[in-house]
Each structure stands twice: as C-alpha cells, then as structure tokens.
Predict the 3D structure of the following.
Amino acid sequence: MSPATRHRRPAALLLAALLLSPAAASAIPFWMKLPDGVSTYSDRVDGLFRLILWITGIIFIVVEALLLFFLFRYRHREGRKAHYTHGSNRLEVIWTIVPAVICVVLALLSRATWADIKQHIPKDGVQIEVTAEQFAWNIRYAGPDNQIGTADDVLTLNQLHFPVGQPIVVTLHSKDVIHSFFLPEFRVKQDAVPGLSTRIWFEGTRTGHWEISCAELCGLGHYRMKGFVTVETPEEFHKWLADQAAAAAAEAAPAPTPAAATQEAKS
Amino acid sequence: MSSTTRTALGGVAAPAVAHELPPGVHPAPTSFWRKYIFSLDHKVIGKQYMFYALFMLVIGGLLATLVRYQLAWPGRPLAFMGKLAPEGMPGGQMLPEFYNSLFTMHATIMIFFAIMPILIGAFGNFVVPIQIGARDMAFPTLNMLSFWTAVPGAILIIWSFFVAGGAAQGGWTSYAPLSAVTPRGQTLWLLSLLVLGISSLLTAVNFITTIINMRAPGMTFFRLPLTVWALFITAILLLLALPVLSGAMIMLLFDRVLGTTFFLPKGLVVSGQPWPNAGGGQVLLWQHLFWFFGHPEVYIMILPAMGITSEILPVFSRKPIFGYRAMAYSIMGIAGLGFIVWGHHMFQSGMNPYLGTTFMISTMVIAVPSAIKTFNWLGTLWGGNIRFTTPMLHALSFVSMFVIGGLSGIFMAATPVDIFIHDTYFIVGHIHYVLFGGSLFGAFAGLYFWYPKMFGRLMSERWGKIHWAVTFITFNLVFFPMHFLGMRGMQRRIYDYTQYQHLKGLQPMNQFMTISLFVLGIAQIILVFNFFLSMRRGKLAGANPWRANTLEWQTSSPPPHENFVGSVPSVYRGPYEYSAPERGSDDHWPQSEPPPAMAADPHGRPRPAHA
C-alpha cells in the first residue's frame, strides 16, 4: 500500500484520538479537585498548583492545537511541495527565552512559600514528636511542662491530636526504614528518616477528623500504616491529653493491692 | 531483489557475497553460532537486543497488569495465579509483599531490560554504524560481549522471582535501609543490575568511540542524523552516571552481605530487634547516589526516543528538520543540566530545604531545552507535506504525549506543590507519560521505521495503524486519570488504598483504568503478530521504502555484512535535505549523492565540512 494514498482516514483518527482521550477523562469534575485544605498554608500550596495548572493548561492547548492544525493544514496532497527551510534564529531565541522566563518566575514565586513551610519553623509551637516504625506512628506529646523527653510526656499509638489555630511543631524520627508523614488535607509531607531528626510545622484551621498516610514505601504493611488525626479546640485537646496521661498512669501502675496502697501512702 | 532467501530469523537474507570484499573487511561468518548467536555484526547484535527487549517488555507488561488488577479489585482472588505463584498469591489472593515485588520488578524490568535495550541496544546498534557510514562498531567483540553480559543480567532478575521471600520489594529506587533489610531477592536485584551495568558501560564506550572515529568521509558532526547525536550524548550520560549507581549498589550489597554500614545509621531497630550491623551510616547517601544516576537515567531513556522522532518527522513531512543546530545543542543542554537536578527527587526526604530551592531552579531550567525541541518539531511540521504512515503516527504521538509528561513535570518541580503530590499517583502519571508516551512511542516509531531495513520487508500498514490507534487511546485512558488519583492524595506503591477514608471513592476510577489497560495489552498482540508475520509475508521493502536521505537507506535492505558494497559512501550534505528547490520534483536528496558538478568529475572528493 502506498502511504500517500491513504492519508485521510488516519488524519481523522489522529484528530479524534488526540481530542477525545484526555478530554473524556477530564470531563469528570470530582477527580479534578484537590481535597479541601485545612491548614494555614494549604491555600498557598493550592494557589500555586492552580497557577501552574493554568499556565501549563494554556501551553498544552496551544501546542496540541498547533500540532493538529499543522497536521490538517499540511497533510499530503498530490502536487504539494513542502516549504524548504532550515529554521529561524529569531524563533529559536523567542522560544528559548519565553519558557525560561516563565519557569524562573514560577521558581521565584514558589520560593517564599517553600521557605515559609519548610524553613521558618515557629518557635512557640505545640511540640509533638512522631517516631515511625513498621507499621505504626508512635506519637509523643509534651506534658504540662511543654518539653519533650521529660517524665510527664504522653505517648499514643497512631492517635494524633492537636489544637486548632495554634502552630504545631512535629519532630520526625524513624526506628527502622524510611516512612513519610503525609497529612493530605493539611498539605504536609515529610519523610521520617532513621538517623535523622526532621522538624516540620503546620497549623490547623478547623476542627475535625482526618488520617495520617504513609507516603514512602516501608515494607509489606506500608498500605496499612495509617494514623488518625483529630483537630480540636485547645480546651478539648488539653482535656484529652490529661485523660491520656491519667490512663497511662493507671495502666503503668496495676490495680494497687491494699498493702501496696498503704506502702505508697506512707512514702 | 528477485531471488530472496529466507533466514533463520525470518525476513530477507542479506545479499550473498558475490563481490570482492574491500580491504580490511572480514567475510561474513557461515556457521550458525557465529552468524546468529555469538555474532560480531552490529546488525545481528541489534536484532538480538530487540528480541531481548521485546521479550522483557511482555514480562514487564504482564507484571503491570497484575498490579492494576489488585488496584481495581483489592483482595479479589485470581484462581489461576494461585497455581502459577502459590507463594505470592496463595489461593489466588495477592499478598502485600508480592504486590511490592510486582511493581518493583515492573519498573526495574521496563527501565533496564526493555526501554534501554530497545532504544540503545537495538536501534543504537543497528542504526548508528550504518547512519555514520561505518562497516561496524569500533569494537565488534566488545559489542558481542555487551549483549552476552546483558543476558545473565536478565536471567538473574527473572531468577529472583523464585528465591525464598520472592523478588526485590523495595521499589525500583531501592531506598536504603528498606533495601538493606528485605529478603534475598534484593541481593539478586543488585547482582543483576551490576552485571547489566557492565554491559551498558561497554556499550557506551563502544558508541562514543565509534561515533568519534568511524564517520564516513564528509560526515561532520553537524551532518550527523539527530538519532546519532542523541545516542552519542546518551552514551556519554551512561558513561558518567552509571558508575555512580554501580558504586552505590556495591555499597548496598556489602551492607547486605558483608556487614558494612554505609547506609545503616546507629540505633536501627527492625521488627523490635536491634539490627545486627547498624551504626555510622547515612540513609540519605543512597538517595543522593541513586538519583545522581537516576535523573540522567531518565534522559538516557528519552534522548534516543527524541532522536528517533527527530529522524522520522522530517522524512514524512518531506522537509528539513527545523533548527538542526538548536536540536543538537538542546540535547547537550539536557544532558548537562541533567546532572544538577537530582535533588528534586528528594524535596521531602529531609535534605536541607535550602537545597530544595537550588534544585527547584535548576529543574525549572531543564524544561527549557525540552520546550525548544517541542517547538522545533512543530516547526518541522509547519509547511510540510505530511504523510501519516505508521512510524509517523507513533512519532507524532511521541510529540503530543511528551508535551503532557513535560508539562506535568513543572508541578513537581515547584517545591511547595511537590509537598502534596510527591510520592502520589501524580508522579506515576508523569513518569508514564514520559516513559510510555515518550520513550515507548518513540521505540514503536523506530520499530515500524527501521523494520524494513532490518528484515527487508515492510510491516503491515493497516495493522500497524490499528495497533497505533488502540494503543494511543487506551494509553491515555490508563495513564491520564493517574494525575487525578494523585490530586486526591492516593499514594503510589500502595497495595490497598481502600484502607483510607479519603481514597475509598477512587475505586471506580481505578477499575476504569485497569479495564483500559486490558485493552491496551490485547492491542499489543496485534504488534506481535504484525512483527513476526511480516518477516515472511510483508511487502518487499527495497533499499529505501520511505525515500529517506540518511545513509542506512542508501544500501540494501537488509544491508550486506559489511554494510556498504564497495567503498564506504562519502557524505556531501546534512541528513534532512528534503524538498530542496534545486532538486525539482524529487523531494529527497541522499546524503551520499554527489552534487551534480562533482558527479561529472571522476576524482570528485567530498567538500570540506559545512552543514
């Protein structure tokens, strides 16, 4: 078969395929949404996401439309002669500089947000320590003294509670392999690396229940390395913390026998 | 070519040596072993790599199908798999560790055993020497050893499925310390890739030497076809990046078997037990070393496909490539910048966040040479006389899909956005638009384009177009929704996302993608049949079925053992002189055709170098 004689059908096919396949998939709005953001910086992250979506979306449409237009306009016809040219230096300069400027501007716009999220850790935040292990999150809260690593610390497994409207500073550790502390709705993600101590911060804007995901492959139980997030009012949080401390104390000291109770009362 | 003989691999036999061999050229081997198995001929080695890569492509694809089955119907048993893999899928029900092995091996096999061998091993070996007008590679024996070193690599990686504990399950990135504490399959993974790395290094040295030293008279660097440019730069990338991976893998191997602690920090406790040899190591060191190789690796897989696309667009637009030098320089730009962007894989790793900003800027800048290439491809089509042959359709798919993969990269280059989409399906979508939408469509384009040169017959255009149409549509249906899954926060490498409240609703989308993948897979059967049946039944190609200019089309299909009968061709012009006004109605102008004035002069010598 001569390739020259059968050009129309594939051209139409190509057109239809190019137009339909991404369009069909993107017509469903539910999939296009980011989860509702619930931290003070989630809007800034989403704003950048949307900005990049607009810029790349426009470039995508322009490039694919030009491609399809050229394929249609310059499809083979008997007697057509291709335009003999080796290019244009002016065009090369334009399409080098324009993308370079767009990309560098995007990088500069991103820089401040990145620094505020990852570099500027608030000094007065609520201190929480998270130690990841296969396949659980060990969470340590500072007790009344607001100091981690003292006797009044409160420990929970997979239960992350924190007060709304206050910066939370989490120090991440790992016992065994790399895990990644991912709070999708808070736009928080940070690897927990054995041998490293990594500090991150975030601040919840509303109360509610969410989940901690593990985002770094950590072994066969990676998929079920899930934790629970409860954001509550400061009063509720302190009450919960006190309850945990009391429960832990009760558990640590088994039900006192009368003799032991007397002993304890004496000392 | 009236008297055609059949060969063991099918296709048309190279013309028998009925002519006087030029000095220094060895006669074609006659024994079966030297001709087809331990051949020194770059064309045979190229075909060997092609069968190797296509075989591994099928295995990699089947593994992906199992991964997607689990994602569509988490935990639903597959009875026949209970018999095939009783340890990983007892009673047909997939275990999480088996799932981890599946995606680890899918990525490893596709990257190292399918995409690289088909682009570099198959097309590089077959095409480069002929395109530069050489009789073979610079080191034919080394070339044979390269292939026969790649074979044990593949055997080791397949064998690893059958050792206790199953194949490697730490992801293709094998992050330590997980990769230091997982079962024995990981050791085989390391050995396999170390062996394969030797093969790739030998190939890289061979390509670089061949391209620098073996070009035909008049074949200056700026008359090289862009495929050769792409493979030249790819070989340099391999030479510089691969030793770093090999070094890291040797360190990891020592951590696993000799008790060293390169990647094992103090106080490591695994499953409640202190790890016996822990102390002093740096976990992030693995990631730095891996990605110092790993990012150039992405370009190692995409540059040859870019070269193939740049080769095919001018042929079927009947037009010179737009901005030849810009194309060559942007390949070099990508290669150079490719070495200073590795940290963008580590934005959320615990690396100093100040470094994140540096790597963000270099990553944004590397988008520029890719943009230049895309615009030059559009410029090539502009004003052309475009024929929609099967190779062209695949090359156009490369351009349109690579645009998506390139643009989605901007999202993760922006560090704040990466916080959310890092390690989600958004990344999986991105990498598949680059490696399937890009590299694999490029490989298919090259397959349909050079098949007639390799086997002497054309593949069926009709079945080729059906294969292309189904592949193109279902490819998008499988991979485009991955971006949406990532936007909803679905992590990659996850055995059962329905464990999470916010991901439960994603199951219908996952099922849709999996069903699309089944259709995509079935469509590849068309390619397999077309590939093998055309060897016997395809239309005879003749020397130059596409009326192309480059040197491989100026010799018979398939070329004789010494590539060119008589002396090697002289080169008089650049590779893409299509529709030149002085040629009148003839829209091609072979690189080796002497200019009219010189043709009359029997002592004509190629003109001095200028493109």
Q: What stands out?
A: Residues 126-253 of chain A form a domain with the Immunoglobulin-like fold (CATH 2.60.40.420). Chain A has six helices and ten strands. Chain A touches chain B through 106 residues (CB under 8 Å).
